[in-house]
């Protein structure tokens, strides 16, 4: 999408046909917090924001090596129920199904049989744990609380539990954050016209989704990948 904004003398009109329904479904974003490849990061345009992460995601894995297959399943089912109950009773912790960082299913819609798997003489299940970031916490602080939470869930029988090696950080309320980015882009256009005398300002790419990427252990850089150009009319 390309917007052409004429001289401020003719007034400023900036209409952005954002897919609001789509944004409403994507109010939460997550990006990897580990194994970051610098080559995958994109250069931000002039208007961007740096925001703190609202939560950290990490996999919770339970496995059992009991000899009897039925016993393995029973141990893990009991552990699963304890984990679900513990998360429901603990503020700032939430469980979900799906593949971490890619898909997410509310835990209310996840059945034990959906996540239970058998391989050889072992069985396991995996869920995603979301841990809210408290004010002043470091990444290590959040992960220490995640470990403490898991330690408080007693696995049944010979089952054991551990956290996954990959973590993701995320932010909520992305619709509001997108609106703020758009407002800042509009302000930049107005400045080019009113203070610098640009006769025409062209902005493209505003229909793009917000790009979110890590810029620190608990910090996200967000921006709309727009392009802007300005033209000045020669004085008569």
Automatic annotation (TrEMBL):
Where does the UniProt annotation place the signal sequence?
Answer: 1-21
- Keyword terms, alphabetized: Signal
Protein's name according to its UniProt entry: DUF541 domain-containing protein
- Protein source organism: Henriciella barbarensis
